[in-house]
Every structure is written in C-alpha cells, then in structure tokens.
Specification:
By secondary structure, the chain is of the alpha/beta class. Helix content is 47%, strand content 12%.
Length: 378
C-alpha cells in the first residue's frame, strides 16, 4: 500500500537507514530473475517498458517457468501519471500475482512500484539502464500531463530484490549511462549538506553516519572508475570499471540519497521543467547542472577531478547546454522560485533565500558561457 509519508512524526533525535532486501549484480542475472521471484511467491506480473519488452520478456518468462513461477506481462507505455497504477491494476483484472517485477528505466520501475503499492505486493526491480538510482528506493514519482512532477509517493518497504544484469546495462546507450553518472555524482555533496543543515531524509529523519560514508564511497568509486566505465557504456561488454561504476551509481547512490538526504541539485529539478526544453532533459543531466549551483552556493569551484569527469561525460555546465534553448533572467527567476519551496532546500548548511539562489544560478550560467569550470566569484 502506498503512503504519503514514511514516518508520521519527525523526531530530531532519530536516524533511519533503509535498504532493499537483496541487491544482486552481475552478468546474465536476467536469466535468474525467476529464481529470485520464487523466493517471494508462486506468481508474478512483469511491468516493463514496451520498447525493451521484446528483449527481456522471453528471458524473464523462461526463468520464471523454470522456477515454477506463473508470469503475467503488462507493458508500460511510458507515461507515469496519477492514474497509471489504477490503469495497470485494471489491466491485471481479477488475476492476483504475489510479486511485481518492474523492469526498464526509471519510469517503468516507478510504474511497477505504483502497482506494487496499490496491491501491497512483493517487488523486484530490474533496471535495464544505469540512468538513475530508482531501483533501490521505496519512493516513486508521478507526473502530470505536461511532464511536471506532481507527487512523490512512498511504499511501505523497500524493494525485496534489486537485480542488476550488467551485460544488459552495458548494452544501453552511452548517453543514458552519462545521465546516471550525473545523478550519482551529486550524492556526496547532498548528503554532506543534509548532515550540516536542518532538513531530513526520505525517511523524515536525520541521516545516519553510515549513509554519509556510503555517499562518500560512491563519489570515490566514480572518481576512480567513471571515465573508464564510460568507455564500456554502449558496447554490451562490461568491464571491471563498468561493474564498479554501476554498483556506485545504483546501489551506493540509491542508499546514499534515500538515507543520506538530497539538497540543492535535486530541488532545482523542480524548476528546470518550467524552461523550454527543460522537461525533456534527462534527470541526471538536470542534477549535474544543479550540482554546479550547489558548489557555487558553498563558495567553491568544482573540484578539478570532478570537472574532468563532467567533460568526459558531456554533462551540461549551463542551462542553455541542458535545454538546448537560450535562457533569460525571467526564466532563471521562475526556475529559482519554483525550486526554493522544495524541502530539499532545507538540507543545506545555511538558510537560502531567492536572491542567493538566483545569483548562484546566474554565476553558473556566466561561467558556462565563458567555457570556464569556475563560477564567477568562486
């Protein structure tokens, strides 16, 4: 069952750490999905991106059949709206599976989460791209018809299994891997800001020390292996560097954000879709640009190693690069105004106001136009 808040009352003296029941990563694991499902029940429904369904459904179906799990298949068309869960449930009809297998990108996995929440079913997530860290978390997002974020929902518990087949992920487009890299690179800075600020995590609690350690290790692994992993992305051939980066981008980043907290980079993703071309920009690219603003608000330049990885991955350094459109002062003000009320803004070492946020964005934009990695005044 879906709930709006994971905890009813925030306790300033309480910390919470959440995680999926089991995380498994390696090559060929798609063919073992049925064995994992069999540990949770005798019947399952596969909710998957319609585009990749022909590539994965036969393998998942064969693995379920071999493990004695009856499988139904529900294609996901791509729109994740408030009514999506009800539509999927209606398509399921009187059938009563015990397990949801949510496979695909972030929105397909969130659609599976929504169905699992509505029916209170066990959940297995199977990412087919490394573009985000949604597979490990209990929360999912819903959008309106215009593509604007409408609601963040929470499951009662984290996924029971996260199944990461790195051979599948290595075959996904390089640009999607770069987006996942952009999303994961923010986690250390955001967890640190949350710990220093007065906000809360996805569990409405203060972050435990372990979450900060995981977020820091996520960053360290990506600094060591991110560039080499990019070379393997899109080839279909995982390398040790790719394996390391995927673990950081899905497992470590997922645990780091959910139990460690988010901050300015993710708050700004509420305002970016207001810009022409903004809603179409990959989430990870939006977060990567927001990380530049985060560093500017801290009065810091982007560290040299991080800047080099931005360049290698083609991550945006300006809103024009992010959206493909020129951005003016009025649009920057609208973006900042929509982002400031987001509760992640509280996860910062000091209280931020609108003029500070606008100034930081303008400085980042000026630096991006100059082709400099150092924001003005930083």
């Amino acid at each position: 069952m879906m709930i709006q808040n994971p905890l009813e009352v925030f306790d300033a003296g309480m910390t919470v750490f959440g995680a999926p029941g089991r995380y498994v990563q390696g090559q060929g694991l798609l063919d073992r999905t049925g064995a994992f499902a069999a540990q949770l029940g005798h019947s399952a429904v596969l909710v998957a991106d319609a585009v990749i369904l022909p590539l994965i459904a036969p393998r998942i179906a064969a693995s379920c059949a071999a493990s004695g799990v009856v499988l139904e298949v529900l294609p996901f068309a791509g729109k994740l709206l408030r009514e999506t869960a009800a539509e999927l449930e209606a398509a399921l009809g009187a059938r009563a599976p015990e397990v949801v297998i949510a496979a695909g990108g972030g929105r397909a996995i969130d659609a599976g989460k929504a169905l699992a929440g509505r029916r209170d079913l066990a959940l297995i997530t199977v990412p087919t791209v490394a573009s985000n860290d949604a597979p490990t978390s209990k929360n999912y997002v819903l959008y309106d018809e215009a593509g604007q974020l409408a609601e963040v929902c929470h499951l009662r518990r984290s996924p029971d299994f996260v199944v990461v087949d790195t051979a599948v992920l290595a075959g996904a487009p390089r640009a999607m891997f770069a987006a996942g890299l952009g999303d994961a690179l923010s986690k250390k800075a955001e967890a640190e800001a949350c710990a220093q600020g007065r906000g809360t995590t996805m569990f409405l609690s203060r972050p435990p020390r372990l979450a900060l350690t995981i977020a820091a290790q996520c960053h360290a692994v990506l600094m060591d292996h991110g560039a080499a992993a990019l070379d393997a992305a899109g080839t279909g051939q995982p390398t040790p560097a790719f394996e390391a980066a995927v673990e950081a981008m899905i497992l470590m980043a997922g645990l780091g954000f959910e139990s460690g907290g988010l901050s300015v980079p993710h708050a700004l993703t509420r305002g970016v879709p207001l810009l022409p071309g903004g809603a179409a920009a990959p989430h990870g690219f939006q977060v990567a640009w927001g990380l530049l603003v985060h560093h500017r608000l801290l009065g810091e330049a982007l560290p040299a190693d991080l800047s080099a990885l931005f360049t290698a991955a083609g991550l945006p350094r300006s809103l024009a690069a992010l959206t493909g459109q020129p951005v003016g002062p009025a649009q920057i003000r609208a973006l900042a105004g929509a982002s400031l009320p987001v509760r992640h803004i509280l996860n910062f070492p000091r209280v931020l106001d609108l003029p500070q946020l606008i100034e930081a964005i303008e400085c980042v934009e000026a630096a991006g136009e100059r082709g400099s990695g150092r924001p003005c005044g930083g």
